[in-house]
Amino acid sequence: MTSEQELARFMRSTFGSVWTLELLLHLRQHGGRAWSRAELVQALRASDSIISNGTSSLLAAGLIVIEDDGAARYRPAAADLEALVAGAATLYAQRPDAVRRVIVDPAAGGVTAFADAFRLRRD
User: For residue 71, which phi and psi values (nearest 5 degrees)?
Assistant: First the structure.
């Protein structure tokens, strides 16, 4: 089981932007398929620069592989990375604002903002 602190550290160190998280989640959702840069630009409605920077970050983090033709495919280098990605995906689906705060402003109480995602609130 992944701790809250470990998951927060993973998100802060891996995702330089919410776009990178969205890119990873897209590739994970379609795990068996390799996506060209042009296909990712179109599917995510992102710029080529965003996709290029995101794939570079995810490759360096060991979360994707780049095929010989340049296409990106979700393939974590280790099982513990898959567990962290699964935790991030679950939290992002449940509390997207908390995840965005951890990614965008890690200096402003990243762990606190992350912990707040688990608090039950009356709406």
Answer: -75, 145
Quote the CA–CA distance of 93 and 71 in Å, as a whole number: 26
Render pLDDT for 4-14 as a digit per residue (tens, 0 to 9): 889 999 999 99
Q: Are 112 and 18 in contact (CB under 8 A)?
A: no
**Gyration radius (Cα) of the chain, Å:** 15
85 Cβ neighbours under 8 A, 6+ residues apart = 24, 28, 63, 76
Question: pTM for this one?
Answer: 0.83
Identity of the amino acid at 97: D
Map tokens 């794939």 to a residue. Answer: 55
Cβ–Cβ < 8 Å for 103, 15:
yes
CB 33 within 8 A of CB 65: no
Look at residues 31, 85, 30, 21 and name the one whose alpha carbon lies nearest to residue 53. Answer: 21
The amino acid sitting at 58 is: L
